[in-house]
Amino acid sequence: MKEKLLERLRCSQCSNRFELENGVEDQGEVKEGSLRCANCNLEHAIVNFIPRFVDDDNYAQGFGFQWNIHARTQVDKFNGTQISRDRFYDHTGWLQADLAGQAILEVGCGSGRFTQIMLDAGMVVYSLDYSNAVDACLANHGLHPNLHIIQGSVYDAPFAPASFDRVFCFGVMQHTPDVKRTFECLAGFVRPGGWLAVDVYAKTLKAMLHYPRYLLRPVAKRLPAPVLYRLVRGAVAALLPLSIALKRVPLIGRYLYPLIPVANYWGALPLDKERLREWSVLDTFDWLGSYYDQPQTAATLGAWLDAAGMEEREVRRMGSFVGTGRKCTEQAGVAKELS
Fold it and tell me: Which is deepest, 50, 78, 247, 248, by most CB within 10 Å?
């Protein structure tokens, strides 16, 4: 943890600043120690350079499991593609030239597939995740001078309201206990004039009736993560070739292949055979093992953007529903920006 992170961190209970105690430095950062709120007398550990505001034993532990196994699967600099970069810019609509020097809160960083894109753009990145996937993110990106990694909950994120130039959250909201509250928390961290970009699984009749994963999830999500992971690897080995064969069928293939309950990116992403299988294992495990899976409609996401005071707001179907907007600059209670 960089000591300058203390300038931005706030106690989620009383908004007080934290004090660093028993800090042990390594490579110019705080590797071990604790953060204490003198007002609430709450204390949070710093372990392996990362301040920890939650325990690992929570509903997201399956995500921590998957991202520490597949730490590099979706990170562009390791897989030799621009898949994450293209998705980041295509889906947010942001221009790289506008991002340098801006402070961005990334919620649900996982192993850091999008973290890399933000760092490459010159942003100051605050990457938050509820699971121990933060350790994979650190392993992938190291003690980067513009990167701050925090393990914590979006519902009690240790930051001042309205203090970030941009807030970004992809692949996460549907997997939280209260999707609306999650959105409200995300929007609350955007400064007036700042930008928000989120996505959420699309709630459509086709998705609810056509995707058999929703029939498997009630059982699959209750299995221990290692057990489910072994089952998923076996299923992908057996079923992905069938799914690809069905996808190749002219005219009706696009309707047939989703009936096979494994993720299939053949023809959609530039992946060789081995990487296609690994992405399938990763996302199939994600589909089946997440404790919460709550898709939303485009109308609902649009209404949330409106209620949050987002101008220039837009909801697009990009596989998931992607919502973007700029917070109205005339809102009261503008927070002082933090460097």
Answer: 50
- For residue 329, the model assigns a pLDDT of 83
- φ, ψ of residue 265 to 5 degrees: the values are -110, 15
Q: Give the phi and the psi of residue 236 in degrees, each rounded to 5.
A: -65, -45
Distance CA 171, CA 110 (A): 10
170: closest CA among 99, 112, 103, 98?
112
Type of residue found at 155: Y
Contact by Cβ (8 Å): 304, 318: no
Tell me if residue 317 falls in helix, strand or coil: strand
| CA dist., res. 270 & res. 256, Å (int) | 22
pLDDT of 244: 98
Furthest CA-CA distance within the chain: 66
Answering whether pTM is above 0.85, one says: yes
Q: What is the pLDDT of residue 330?
A: 65
Low-confidence ranges of the chain (pLDDT < 70): 209-210, 330-339
- What is the pLDDT, as a whole number, of residue 207? 73
Give the whole-angstrom CA distance, residue 290 versus residue 181: 18
Tell me the three state secondary structure of residue 204: coil
Q: Is 264 left (phi over 0), alpha (psi -120 to 50) or beta?
A: beta
Please state, in angstroms and as integers, the Cα–Cα distance from residue 292 to each residue in 12, 60, 169, 261, 287, following that order: 24, 9, 16, 18, 10
Q: What integer pLDDT is reported at residue 335 of this predicted model?
A: 39
The secondary structure element, H or E, covering residue 64 is: helix 61-69
Q: How far apart are CA 258 and CA 167, in angstroms?
A: 32
Token readout for 237 is 């080995």
**Alpha-carbon torsion (9, 75, 70, 319), positive or negative:** positive
pLDDT tens digits, one per residue of 94-105:
999 999 999 999
Return the bridge partners of 284, or none: none
- Angle 273-289/61-69 helices, nearest 10 degrees? 170
Helix (H) or strand (E) holding 238: helix 225-247
All residues at 6 or more sequence positions from 170 whose CB lies less than 8 Å from its CB, including other chains: 87, 88, 91, 108, 114, 197, 198, 199
